[in-house]
């Protein structure tokens, strides 16, 4: 902590632009006249104290920092301290994520269990709570939707169903996202993430439709994630699209990334402490669970490739 802690203000890094870090702080009453009207937050263009470099601090979006030497008029400040992180998501790289909302469409593109599981495992392996947002529900019947919701319940996940076309389910999503301090929207491209973000933050108007988005990606291939406010102090990350996240795990912890397996292991223990839940005697995992075959296939792949542990 710096000597001038009393003059420091706590904030969060919401973007990285060139060599600057953009830090959002809550306004201080005495300086209120410099703040945009109707806004409780202010974003400052920051550099960091060089001692942070010597101490090896690598600051990323989502980091909680203290800023000092604040120039409210020009919206500039200096970062003097970085708080330890609660979590870190590697792709996209964001610190302190409290929720990963995995967006998958029920149609166009069709729901895909394997792909959805890969996104969920990315969240589980980073130890960040996931929820599932089922999008484009205007394209299917209520009965078909119920089948998806029940399926996901058996996997151990809450799901939220939404249509951006008729706004069905939208309020419940806002409510859920407002309970999380920093949410990352993940999911394959084409499922409606940008449409959802634009509804949540109308002032953004990010381009949807594949053509304009391809252009956007072309221009910003190395861009960092940016955090947007969705009210109530909650932030949302705009993520670059990737369709098939790698499963990064070692063989022994892989089963812990499946809530339906965890639920069984809480109640009873396998005979062998290092059980991989294959064909070991005294294994308590129910092999009839829907995602068992997905678990098994990926486990065998890990064993065969002798994948070194990359979890840290
Ligand atoms: P992203 O790649 O996940 O960001 O997806 P986009 O937001 O760009 O949406 C891809 C396409 O799906 C666009 O043509 C959208 O108009 C369409 N779309 C998005 N949400 C919905 C929805 O709720 N219902 C229907 N029918 N189409 C949607
Ligand atoms: Zn077992």
Bound ligands: guanosine-5'-diphosphate, zinc ion
- The radius of gyration computed from the alpha-carbon positions, rounded to a whole number of angstroms, is 22 Å
Structural class: alpha/beta
Largest sheet: number of strands, sense, barrel closure? 6 strands, mixed
Polypeptide structure, described:
With 312 residues, the chain is an alpha/beta fold. The protein contains 9 helices and 13 strands. The strands form 3 sheets. A 6-stranded mixed β-sheet has the order 10-9-8-11-13-12, with helices on both faces. It has a 5-stranded mixed β-barrel with strand order 1-2-3-5-4. The longest helix is centred in the middle third of the chain and has 14 residues, at 142-155. Residues 1-5 and 217-222 have low confidence and may be disordered. Bound molecules: guanosine-5'-diphosphate and zinc ion. The site of guanosine-5'-diphosphate (GDP) has 17 residues, from helix 5.
